[in-house]
Structure formats: structure tokens, C-alpha cells
Amino acid sequence: MSRVQLAIIGGGLVGASLALALQEGARQRGWRIVLIEPFAPGNSYQPSYDARSSALSYGTRQIYERLGLWPALSARAEPIRQIHVSDRGRFGATRLSAESEGVPALGYVVENAWLGQCLWQALDAEVVEWRCPAEVTALQALGDGYRLTLNDGSQLDCDLAVLADGGRSGLREQLGIAVKATPYGQSALIANISTAEAHQGQAFERFTDEGPMALLPLSENRSALVWTRQGGDAQRLAALPDREFLAELQQVFGYRLGALTQVGARHLYPLSLVEASEQVRPHLVVLGNAAHSLHPIAGQGYNLSLRDTLALAEALLDSPATPGDFSVLQDYLQRQRLDQQLTVGFSDQVTRLFSTAQPLLVAGRNLGLLGLDLLPPAKHWFARQAMGLGTRPL
């Protein structure tokens, strides 16, 4: 039976980022890391109009710079230079700019396939072993770690098992880790859009009584749409012919980027705030969407997961203890507790405030948006939250 120091279950963006963050320290310590992933990454990046993307905060750029990934990643990272926040049909609006915050960009939008490709190419096979395609079917707690059973019948022991297998983690359920799920009663419609006018690095957050929408700048003058609507209405929009869909989107978004000219494949995702009741046990960490899954409109989910990932790597590498030592894992979680609470709370409250038609709350959010424009300290605080810098210095 083979044994490794770390088994990362899930080789997606979070799992691969953890492997990269640990890679150099693991090499120095002689640690072996196994990355177990059911879907094999492609051998090369293939551009696609319909590629899914992620919004990376400025704080995430700083993390990837530390890990040496940013030079490669930045080749297809579209900078967000301005964010225009508005409430449809009302006077409240505010604008955030990278220049006023003293940063090159408030954030970046990157295609997931490109981010994955950059991560996978940065991993050293001498330190990080891929088991792919492979799937963990069972986890058994041992006195000094975990025993993993894979779908080919093989078994692997590890000092520390990291669950990074997504928001619908079957292994999390198998281990009896409960989740608190708060449905928003909404679905996110995701698609890429082309516009007649260049986006020039502008991102738009548009709030309506039916739910918020975001349009984020992508390469090749595309924009990534996240349109939140009630479940039935979201399904109706997803089924519309392209021309009718663009016409309805144009009516809600307006003409800030001219005419909307093309829409790609549309995908629907039911939305809930999901939080695991436990994120650490002896020799076990729950990470990424398996630990907390946020509403996408505030663009905070992946960025929070990456900050968790870096904090976990630092805790493991700073300790002389064996990976999986419970006190080390508890220290990691305590270090990230405030960040998680603030980010989850910020994302949830923004979502709820800007998804309501109640007159008093509508009036309050308009005054809030106006106040952001009139009060520089408030706007700076809001911008730092959006940049993923809310709990640490720039």
C-alpha cells in the first residue's frame, strides 16, 4: 500500500492551486502530493467563444504573483479598470476605478480553461503526481491519516486528505459533514456577449427588482454575462431565440456598450448559499466550493477559496508537525475565520439587498449607492471588498 503526505481530491482550479502553493515547500521537505481528478485536463488550450470564465480580484493577482503563475496567466487576463454599479430605473449609481484606488486593475476576468492550463503546466511531476482520470469512492479515517479507495479498486493512504471536489461533494456527505444551504430562489444565467462598442475594461453591476446582473470584460471584446432571475423566468430566458434574448437583455441593461450583437451558449445554475458545518477534522480539510459556495454576482467565491488555499499552504509549511496535525488545521481555520465571515456576509447581503422590490429597501440601496459616490472613505471600503483586500493591507 503506497502512502503520501497529501492527497488532494479534486484537480480543478482550487485543488491545482493548492498543489502549486505547496509545491516548492513539499520539494524541500520530501513530501509527496497526489492530485486525484476524474476529468483529464486537455493537452493544450483551445480558445472558445463560449468559454466559462472567473473574475479574479486584485488580491488574487497578488497571490498568483507570489506563486509565479501571473506572467503566464496575464496573457489572457482581461483587466477590470472600472466598475459601474447602478439600479435600473432609479437615480442611485456609483463608479469604482482602478486609478482612484492606485492599482493597475480592480480585478481580471480569465477563462477557466486558460487558468486551468496555466496551473497544470506549472506543476512539477516530480513533486505532484496526477491520478487522472480517477475518482475517490470511499474515505476511511485512520489513526494517522486517511485511506482512500479509488474507482479502479486501488487504495492510497495519506497524512492529510483535502476535499476540493466541488459544491456537490459526495465524499463530504459520506463523511457526515452537514451543510447549511440557504436557497436564493434564483438561477444564474451565464453566457458570453458581444457588443457594438468596445468595453474598454468596464464592468457593470446592474440591479433590478427581478434580480441583479453583471457584465464583465473578456478578451476579444466579449463580455461575460451573469444574469440572476427567478427560476421559471431564468428558464424562459434560456430558451429564447438569440435575437429575442438579446432584445430583452438590451432593454434591461441599456446601451452603455451600444447594441448587443451576439450571445453564446446559455447555461443555468440554481443558486444557494452553502456552508459546510465542518471545514477541518484531524487529517482532513474541506476546501473550495465544498466548504462554501457563494452567489456569483459579487464575484467573491473563487477569490475567497484561493485565499483559504494560500492560508492552508502557509499553515502546513510553517509547522514542523506532520501534515494533518489537528492543531495546525485549527490554526489555519482560525486564521481564515474573519475573512470567511466578512466575505460570505458581504456577498449575501449585497445579493439580498439588490434582489428586492420592497420600497423601503429600494430607497435605502439607492441612497447607499449615492452615498458611495459622495463619501470617498465608504467607496474605498467597498472597492477593497471587491478587490479581495478587505482583511489585509494593500
UniProtKB/TrEMBL annotation:
One of its GO terms (biological process) is ubiquinone biosynthetic process. Pathway: Cofactor biosynthesis; ubiquinone biosynthesis. Its EC number is 1.14.13.-. Its cofactor is FAD. Signal peptide: none annotated. Belongs to the UbiH/COQ6 family. This is 2-octaprenyl-6-methoxyphenol hydroxylase. It comes from Pseudomonas fluvialis.
